[in-house]
Amino acid sequence: MPALLMPTTLMPTTLITGGLVVDAEQEPHAADVLADGGRIAAVSAPGRLSPREADAVVDAAGRLIMPGLIDAHAHVDGLVFDPDVQLALLRQGVTSTICGQDGVGFAPGDGRYAAEYFAAIDGGDPRRLRGADAARRASGPAPDGIGAQLAGYDGRTAVNVALLVPAGTVRHEVLGRASRAPDAAELAAMRRLVETGLAEGAVGLSTGLDYVPGIFADTAELTELARPLAAAGAAYVSHMRGGYEANSAAGIAEIAEIAAGSGARVHVSHFHAAADTVLGLLGELAAAGVDASFDAYPYTRGCSLLSMPFLPPELTVLPAAALIPRLADPAERARLRRDWFPELDAYASVGPRWRELMTFAHIAAPEYAWAHGLTFAEATRRAGAADEIAFGLDVLVASRLETSIVMAVPDARPPAELARIFAHPGHLGGSDGIFIGAHPHPRARGAFARYLRETVRELRAWSWQDAAAHLSARTAERFGLGERGLIREGWIADLALVDPDGVADTADYDAPLGLARGIDDVFVAGVPVLAGGRLTGATPGAGIRRQPVRRGIHRGTRSERN
């Protein structure tokens, strides 16, 4: 764990001198920035602000002064309190995250469902969200609502957290683990939970339509849950149904239907497919009058729960205590081999190659620690198991389903093709970062630094102004994160100092735990949270309540319009 340099959260007055200010509305230009009381007090020509006005002066010579970056799709719901997670985010310049993704979260409700089902993704201890009182945290599970969860972040982390209302969790609160459609009264109860979450500050509604119980929700149910979003100015955010890539058209068609029926604007989570497919489908949404944005990360491999592709939904919806004995039963294994596993090849769209393309990221069973980073085929050979199916079922039983995998695609898209996707003005920066595991996907620790290294410096597909738009300002505007994302007087002083020649990701698929370099000083609400590349120990982060601020930057930066 890094050394802590500053044990308390203060609101200092800080003067940043000698750098180049850049944001979505300004090309890089020399200016000094004064932060005071959590806000940007002044942005002035170099040398005009007196150091005597500041408690501290930070020399930004040779660096860009950028707005803090915002991760539009993060999985740190229960992990953002960990210093190592905070350090990994801040070393990429990320000061705010949007959580409650993929339809599963700790609220509303007691958090137990998410803690079990999404333990390998979001973390499994909702009690950490109960606030600073240790005795209270030990007394029970997570808070009951979005408002209570947001309050659990206030002043307890170095990074800000906004929340989506997770539709799968809403469904579970009303229907439990049932796969049927809700009746009218149940659907009304589900809608009330969405309305309450929005009233408490949620920035939208998320779905995870390949996960349970979201996979059981039909389009009519989702449309009804999305109806309150338009009036609230919030977004419908969807992990689409059907596996993305070549299957994306069906998912986009459902999103268009939900948008038309609800009036909500939409956001497509981790939209990954061939560039022509992505851009063509976004064009279809625009032609249909759908206000759409999306996030996509600068990698071609994915990461998720092993149980999601490996088991049928009617099993994964069961509690672990009921499912584990079934997976250990030879008769059940024989049934799965006959009735389910032939479908895995079709789901993966790669045929039997899934055995070489799926790599173990996290296995919550010490006896299988040796398998981290190995493909199914490699691990099966090393274990001497009968085949990959037997080995996968053994791992799920031993880990009580807490296993995740990194999933490659047969033909990795080159960076230039990804840059074509990122050039779309509806693109927002998102890592889909999952921090749990001995061999996780490198996107958690590298995505935002990789955007800056690869898309800006190496490919020159973005200018620095474009990067500030895609990775900060547009996300703040799209999700109503208040006065964040631009460097202007009176706005929140979330700032990152970026070495334009040195910023880079170090995490890769072989060594995924490396921290980014080239961003050593970061401020949240004007408070230094990263200094010299090390955590200061300050915790000025907060739960961000939805607060729309219109600034009209979604139309594209100058370089995108020209």
TrEMBL record:
Entry-linked SUPFAM superfamilies: Composite domain of metallo-dependent hydrolases, Metallo-dependent hydrolases
Amidohydrolase domain segment(s): 57-275, 379-527
Listed Gene3D superfamilies: Metal-dependent hydrolases (3.20.20.140)
InterPro entries named among the record's database cross-references: Amidohydro_3 (IPR013108), DNase_TatD-rel_CS (IPR018228), Metal-dep_hydrolase_composite (IPR011059), Metal_Hydrolase (IPR032466), Metallo-dep_Hydrolases_sf (IPR050378)
GO function terms (MF aspect): hydrolase activity, acting on carbon-nitrogen (but not peptide) bonds
Positions of region (Disordered): 541-562
Biased composition (Basic residues): 547-556
PANTHER family to which the protein is assigned, alphabetical: COLLAPSIN RESPONSE MEDIATOR PROTEIN, HYDRANTOINASE/DIHYDROPYRIMIDINASE FAMILY MEMBER
Name of this protein: Amidohydrolase family protein
Originating organism: Agromyces archimandritae
